[in-house]
Design brief:
Elements lengths: L3 H4 L3 H4 L2 H15 L6 E5 L16 E6 L2 H9 L4 E3 L12 E6 L11 H12 E11 L1 H4 L5 H6 L11 H10 L2 E10 L7 H9 L14 H9 L12 E9 L1
Parallel strand pairs: 1-2, 1-4, 2-3, 4-5
Antiparallel strand pairs: 5-7, 6-7
Amino acid sequence: MLDYDVEARDYDATRGGVPRAEAAAGALLGLLPPGTRTLLDLGCGTGIVTARLARPGLRVIGADSSYGMAARAAERGVPVVLASGTRLPVRTAALDAVGAVWLLHLLRAPGVVEALVAEAARVLRPGGVFLTTVDKDAAHDVGSDIDAVLAPHLTPAPADAGADVTAYAAAVGLRPYAEAAFTGHGQGRSPRQAAATLLAGRFASRVGPRGVTAAQLAQELEALPDPDRPRADPAYRILAFARD
């Protein structure tokens, strides 16, 4: 698992920056029901998406368990709390919306995603919505030669599988409401970038080298044709669930 206190400094530059953040914020805003007044952005990270959600009449707050990430969000002017998504300092039925972008795929400990979905349901008022990206790592498989190299080493059971998240939501009174997709600008990596990402541990939720070392797998990636040419950007999926 990455140390996000350390990652905070360079996080945005290695994750698509403003174009990807604006695409995510636009997709989230498009799923909010009319009249939404409060939104909690779970795992807000540096606040690069959160800051782009604020609108007149909509109060947006970020939450993150990493002090370094929360500090970066605060520097952007985002109201932020240091908190775990499974134990929020929020009273029951207090919010109109809860968002979780690029978060669930990281929560690989047993039961954590289920607990986070339940906590989101707890803090939502009746009619409120929970918005989350699902199948995040799978979105990076765009049928490229990089994907062919990584295929034997992919994590077999993603933490954010859409079907599983939908089942967790149903168990706590959250029904499917809508969905959207958006482009992960800047995430279409070149073979050389993919190799560097692997060696830096940033593929940890997606790739676990089998039968080879990370260094050997990185060498295989760097040996692909046109090693500096970015492959296609992924398209991410957001599901929205409404509180009964």
